[in-house]
Amino acid sequence: MKIRSKSLLLRLITPLSFLSIATVLTISVSTYFSARETLKKSLYDRLSVAATLKEEELSQWFQTQRNDILLLARLPEIESQAEILLSEAVAAPEQANGESEQPSDTEIKQAAKKQLADYLRDIVVFKPDLAEVSIVADDGTVLFSTNQESNNTKQGISANATYFADASDKITPIFYTSDTTGTTAITFATPVLDGAKNRLGILLATLDLQDVDSLIQERTGLGKTGTTYLVGQSDDQNVFIASQQVKESDREVDSFAIDTAMAGESGAGLYQNHAGEPVIGVYRWLEDQSLALLAEIDQREAFSPARALARNILLIGFVATGLLLSGIYLLSRRITQPITEITKAAIQLQSGDLDQSLTIASQDEIGVLAQAFNHMAQQLKQSFVILETNNQELELRVQERTAELEESKEVAEAATRTKSAFLANMSHELRTPLNSIIGYSEMLEEDIEIIGKTDLIPDLHKIQGSSKHLLNLIDSVLELSKIEAGRMELNLQAVDIAELVEEVLMTIRSAAEKKKNAVVLNNLSTVNIVETDAEKLRQCLLNLLNNANKFTERGQILFIVQTPQYENDSYIEFVIQDTGIGMEADQMESVFEAFNQADTSSTRRYEGTGLGLTITREFVYMLGGIVTAQKAPEQGSIFTIRIPQVIPSLETQLVSSSS
């Protein structure tokens, strides 16, 4: 046998290798997740600070825009020219010579529009996010607009305008997508008043949110992938409140954070953003602006320090593990080398080479083991010499014992032949007079019935019953003798189950009626024909039915026939359940033993030889099945015969013949 010199070495190193690698991996994974949690908390703080700054800047921007629009509407230049445009008739100015030139109302209003256009042009230079400024009459007519296409159109305060009268009004900004620019915009509306503070019309100012773009998109130290953005409602959809993002997205935006924030809740967590990318973010609902503010960083960038730390720990750990395993390998090799020598010597000893001796190089445990091996090899060699001597003596004794057994076998076979011959002769000698007694008693019964002496008939019945009982006893003893001698043969044939069961029931019914027992058949069999010995199966069923009837009085005998499957083999099963006296647990163990009686008292109430169940068991074994007995749940006993639908030996013959 070839020995792998490193097998023990591998057994020492392999567990340590796995343990070291598992330790390094555990430390790396735990460090990664610990660092990840620390980074997560730090990032939440950074994102929260960024979101707070954006929220404050956004609130300040809205307040500034609102104040600017109010200031614009209250400027004397705006009010005076707006009053001209909104008045129905304008008085003409007087000339110096007392004569008055009457310019038309249209000319006056055109002059007012020109002055407004010049003035607003100067304002737009300092406030470039003013996309459009319009003055609208109460009936919705646009009297002036920086957008020439809107002049003299019907506009009024649409559903997209955010209206306020002064700085103290609480407003909810309304965002919408501009039809002209395709970007998100907001329109502020405030009244234009005359000197008496009466409303003449409305000033509409549309902002293109460029400042909001710059304010929101500034990363504020959130790294390469860090971003903040606003989401609001426009046309019943969630849209970006930023010009560039609106252009890039042509569909409604949604994500867990967006949906949660738009529902009025604030929070933070790990989730997928509107583009389906994993991010870590903070989301807030801005109640004053009716906007959702989100600050997010891509998870790959966010947790890259944790991954780098884990990779470094893995690298250092594997290098340290390699150095450790190298030292363990060298140390283990010094330990395993002498053990390998002992193993080789032991295998040589096993193969029969008893002249084995090891060199003892040390006094440690391995040296003691080598010394013990040498001692064992010497003792084993001596033991083999002694064993060889004992084997020779044992062979002589075995030969003598074999001769004695052969002689005993011949004596036993002679005794068996003598017993068989005796039983055969006794059977013939006893059956002949018994049959004569039965015949004469039946003849006497007929004669007595003729002469009218019917009071003697019961005595004749006793003679007939005793004779038949003795005849059955002789038959049972003879059958048991044949079984023990191995001379009982099977006569296999196709058996109709329904027909066999009906014959058995017809035989038992008269005896059952005498004891007022009801015999109930429940045939659940799914097959009609089985291959077995009909006579032996019939005798087994009759033995069990007679046994049930014998110990039951004024009760019921249930006869069930069924065809179960056990481990893919098909069986037929006969269950006989009575409501008789039943049996105790100790009786169950010996109920199938020869000459065993259920009633062993001196005043026996039940007849029988105790051979019926024994013969039934042997016949069932011959048919390839089993027979069992158990106590019924309430009262009585249950006997079950289970035999294969085709006896194995016959099944083998059938398969061979078909092939």
Low-confidence stretches: 1-6, 89-100, 652-659
**Second CATH tier, the architecture of the domain at 489-658:** 2-Layer Sandwich
Number of beta-strand segments: 19
Helix content: 40-55%
Arithmetic mean of pLDDT:
78
Supply the helix-strand structural class.
alpha+beta
Biggest beta sheet attributes: 6 strands, mixed
Terminal residue distance: 46 Å
Defining traits:
alpha+beta; 19 strands; 15 helices; 6-stranded mixed beta sheet; elongated; single chain; Beta-Lactamase; Heat Shock Protein 90
Describe the structure.
With 659 residues, the chain is α+β, with helices and mostly antiparallel strands. Among the domains are: 75-89 and 104-208, Beta-Lactamase (2-Layer Sandwich); 489-658, 2-Layer Sandwich (Heat Shock Protein 90). The protein is 53% helix and 18% strand. The protein is built from 15 helices and 19 strands. It has helices at residues 7-74, 76-86, 105-126, 210-217, 243-248, 256-262, 299-302, 304-350, 365-451, 457-485, 497-514, 534-550, 585-590, 612-622, 648-658, and strands spanning 130-137, 142-145, 161-163, 175-177, 184-193, 199-207, 227-234, 237-240, 267-272, 278-286, 291-298, 492-496, 518-523, 529-533, 556-562, 565-566, 569-578, 626-631, 637-644. Strands 1, 2, 3, 4, 5 and 6 form a six-stranded mixed beta sheet that branches. Strand 1 (130-137) and strand 2 (142-145) form a beta hairpin. The radius of gyration is 57 Å and the shape is elongated. The two termini are 46 Å apart. 22% of the residues are buried.
What's the short story on this structure?
The chain is an alpha+beta fold and 659 residues long. It has helices at residues 7-74, 76-86, 105-126, 210-217, 243-248, 256-262, 299-302, 304-350, 365-451, 457-485, 497-514, 534-550, 585-590, 612-622, 648-658; strands spanning 130-137, 142-145, 161-163, 175-177, 184-193, 199-207, 227-234, 237-240, 267-272, 278-286, 291-298, 492-496, 518-523, 529-533, 556-562, 565-566, 569-578, 626-631, 637-644.
